[in-house]
Design goal:
The complex is a heterodimer of chains A (141) and B (387). Chain A is α+β, with helices and mostly antiparallel strands and 141 residues long. Chain A has helices at 5-12, 61-74, 79-84, 87-93, 102-122, 128-131; strands at 25-31, 36-44, 50-58. Chain B has 387 residues and is α/β, with parallel strands linked by helices. A 7-stranded mixed beta sheet of chain B has the order 2-8-7-6-5-3-4, sandwiched between helices. In chain B, strands 9-10-12 form a 3-stranded antiparallel beta sheet. A two-stranded parallel ribbon of chain B has the order 1-11. The chains are: A alpha+beta (141), B alpha/beta (387). At the A-B interface, helix 1, strand 2, strand 3 and helix 2 of A face helix 10 and helix 12 of B.
């Protein structure tokens, strides 16, 4: 099997699919040229906790599964906690993913950062010191 | 039993019962090396020569023009590299091909480019065809070879082989065609179609894997690319794959015998499938529907990605294929679909269904039933889907 059972579970029954109307933060990474586009929507409360998160992904099985698992990992966490989650942890949550698909997990991490960055920008706060540089092309090596 | 529907006959085919039966004695009883003089060796030799005749009859050439190889890829490599090396010594270092060839041809041409050869990649039109005129205009004094596939493996479009062959003949340029997909689906005849070199493969026509043929027209001499003990009249060394060769001989005989009926049945199924699938919104067919192999259908569904689609189909027991980058391990989607001028989104979202002689109406009905909800589901997840 190309993918683990865990990954297939997230692919066939992805969690948190959809959009949030008037989100507190929105991010998009990837492009159709490479075959992956990931969008993330977040709702954030006064304590900077991510109360809701939704995604939409155009991409392969691994792209959909990493989006799904990443949203479950950050939901309910504070932004600071969520930003600490690395693509490695996303992969671990799916047990493993094929080497050629590692870029999908990077994409999920970057999509979240992009949404958080949008959240701070909307509040007039420079996101760069908190979020770092978002590498939208990280997925396209 | 779990559902299993095989709709990837352009990738490979199930071996025919009869073919397998003919092969088995050459694995278990008459396993002799065909180069030996004792009885089981002589049996192998005569089985190989019988298969050579069967293949010659099927493609309209002489038995001595049939050379066994390990498959389509080796045949393509031999035709191109063997010509290039030989004719470079006469100052001919230019090759003409198309931008939709199989990688066995494209990557071989690219390798030769690095070695100093000049290659012209003719562009197909939006329907997936090159014209004989394009070939004519590209030929120059230094051209050693024109290599144009008979029919494309991804979209099934059939090129004007006879006309291209005629032009090459008139200009004195050798003409090679990769007929791996075309064989057993259209009438392939090397004499009628002015072909000098032709690659064919066994496993695409219900024969075993690991055996192919390069047809080399009498009078043409290629450089060898595999040297050794001098098998295949000193042209292609290596102990013969006797059971494979026997299997190929029977498979081609069976395939040609049954072709008319098979094509008729597949056309009925194909029309039924196309009519039903195109009811899905934003679905389309890649490549012309005219002059196309009967068994090949290449759909695109807007806003979804091919690998996801294949995984969902696999969960339903359906085997198919896609031009998506994700299925190949590279980041680039199908070079064939891009060559038609399709967008990356369309190229990534393609689904190739290839029918075969064992495909039934029930199987097609099952695909028609499960496909639309899968497309719907993936579109729900997709940010590109704007309902």
């Amino acid at each position: 099997m190309l993918y683990t059972e865990k990954l297939m579970e997230h692919f066939t029954n992805p969690k948190n699919v959809g959009v949030i109307e008037n989100p507190d933060g929105f991010g998009e990474v990837g492009n159709a040229k490479c075959g992956d586009i990931m969008q993330m929507y977040i709702s954030v409360n006064d304590k900077e906790e991510i109360t809701d998160i939704k995604f939409k992904t155009f991409g392969c099985g691994a792209a959909i599964a990493t989006s799904s698992v990443a949203t479950t990992m950050v939901k309910g966490k504070t932004i600071r906690e969520a930003l600490k989650i690395t693509n490695k942890e996303v992969i671990e949550a799916l047990e493993e993913i094929p080497a050629v698909k590692v870029h999908c997990s990077v994409l999920a991490e970057q999509a979240l950062k992009s949404a958080v960055s949008d959240y701070y920008t909307k509040r007039g706060i420079d996101p760069t010191p908190i979020v770092g540089i978002i590498d939208e092309s990280a997925a396209h090596h | 039993m779990e559902k299993f529907v095989y709709l990837d006959n352009a990738a490979t085919t199930k071996i025919s019962e009869e073919v397998l039966k003919e092969m088995l004695p050459f694995l278990q009883e008459s396993y002799g090396n065909a180069s030996t003089i004792y009885s089981i060796g002589r049996e192998s030799r005569s089985a190989i020569e019988k298969a050579r005749k069967q293949i010659a009859t099927a493609i309209g050439c002489l038995p001595q023009e049939v050379f066994f190889t390990s498959g389509g890829t080796e045949s393509d490599n031999w035709a191109i590299q063997g010509t290039a090396r030989r004719l470079a010594r006469k100052g001919k270092n230019h090759i003409i091909t198309t931008n939709i060839e199989h990688h066995a041809v494209l990557h071989t041409c690219e390798m030769l480019e690095k070695q100093g050869f000049e290659v012209t990649y003719l562009k197909v039109d939006s329907e997936g065809f090159v014209s004989a005129k394009q070939v004519e205009e590209a030929i120059k004094d230094t051209t050693c070879l024109v290599t144009v596939m008979y029919a494309n493996n991804e979209i099934g479009t059939i090129q004007p082989i006879k006309d291209i062959g005629k032009i090459c003949r008139d200009k004195g340029v050798w003409f090679h065609t990769d007929a791996v997909q075309a064989l057993s689906n259209v009438n392939v005849n090397v004499v009628e179609q002015n072909i000098d070199l032709m690659s064919i493969s066994s496993h695409k026509i219900h024969g075993p894997k690991g055996v192919g043929v390069l047809y080399i027209k009498r009078g043409i001499v290629l450089d060898n690319i595999i040297t050794g003990g001098g098998q295949e009249r000193s042209k292609r060394s290596g102990t013969e794959n006797v059971s494979g060769i026997v299997g190929f001989g029977y498979a081609i005989t069976e395939a040609i015998r049954d072709m008319t009926e098979k094509v008729k049945n597949i056309n009925i199924l194909k029309n039924h499938l196309i009519e039903s699938v195109l009811k899905i919104p934003f679905s389309s067919i890649n490549g012309s529907l005219e002059n196309r192999l009967c068994f090949n259908i290449n759909f695109s569904f807007g806003s979804i990605e091919g690998e996801s689609l294949l995984l969902m189909l696999d969960l339903k027991g359906i085997c198919a294929s896609s031009g998506s980058a994700c299925t190949s391990g590279s980041l680039d989607p199908s070079h064939v679909l891009l060559a038609l001028g399709k967008s990356h989104e369309v190229a990534h979202g393609s689904l190739r269904i290839s029918l075969g002689k064992y495909t039934t109406k029930q199987e097609i009905d099952y695909l028609i039933e499960v496909l639309p909800p899968i497309v719907d589901r993936l579109r729900e997840i997709s940010p590109l889907w704007k309902n």
